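Input record (Table S2, row 298):
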Amino acid sequence: MTAALLRAQSAWFACLDPLLPSAVEPPAGEVVQPDGSPAVGVLVRTLLEPGTPQTLWSAMDVTELHPIMGDTDDLDPLLRAARPTLRDAADSSFVVIWPSRDIRAARALLAHGLVPLSVLAARTAHAGPVAEVPGLSIRRAGTADLPALTESAMAELTYSHQVGGAFLRPNAPAIKRAALSTHLLQGDPVWIAERDGRVVGHAEGWHTDSVPGSWAETRVRHGRWGYVNCLSVRADARGTGVGRALMDVVHAELLGEPSVGAFLYYNPPNPVSPAFWSRQGYRPLWTVWEIRPASALR
Ligand SMILES: CC(C)(COP(=O)(O)OP(=O)(O)OC[C@H]1O[C@@H](n2cnc3c(N)ncnc32)[C@H](O)[C@@H]1OP(=O)(O)O)[C@@H](O)C(=O)NCCC(=O)NCCS
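Output record (coenzyme A complex):
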């Protein structure tokens, strides 16, 4: 039954958007099946560990609905069925991640109070040339740069928290510093941009393989992808070409054979990042619909 629905869902996804991967079996969770609907939903609850990087972009108590819709088009019955299962917890969210181009789903999601807080956006174009920006130098960061990188990462978080899904938790600087330190120690690329000897921005990213059973195969087609984790430009240096120059360097490393492309997350309510990422060749693939707290679902 589920296998047939997943096959039909994959066929529908392939019609919608050539970059979508095939639908895969959701993780174990509470199954909901509304009366009279062929669709099935799996509700997966995750309680985050305090102090982990995820707590900076997610509520502590997340319930994600994984719809298995086949080729049916109405999410409303599944959302109604999910509603009574949600607990009343302050730091909680209810999340549905669905193909951005499936506009049939948007009406039901909006009607139940969910908002499109993030998108996963992808680009498959090859890297272009790395343009020189006079007075700006970009280099790989090292552990000596940790204080400046942490400050730059916090500037991005502080901005994103106002216009999207990020959480400015009291221990955020320590979490950012620890995550950056781990990336540097394991050799993941982190780039730093300097003007007149002063740090004006940074970028982080790495390769990820979408292979059977991996997290990435639920989001992008099989193959090697670049993942851009963070781009931040100091407030007083924005709009002067720093972000573009950093991404030229990031793309030169993350795109090209054997990479299929690159992907990242941004917040549609952010007034600067959607236009910036569109100019960089990224377009929405998945939309993360969310409501906080979870019990606010209508
Ligand atoms: C988004 C961000 C990284 C962009 O970096 P930036 O250095 O300001 O951008 P650039 O100066 O390199 O501009 C790149 C392009 O965006 C355009 N742009 C930048 N700021 C703009 C603005 N305020 N209005 C209109 N266009 C703008 C530039 O004209 C340029 O277009 P082009 O490629 O056609 O020439 C930066 O604004 C930032 O750090 N914002 C806060 C944190 C954030 O939102 N990070 C991204 C999270 S996903």
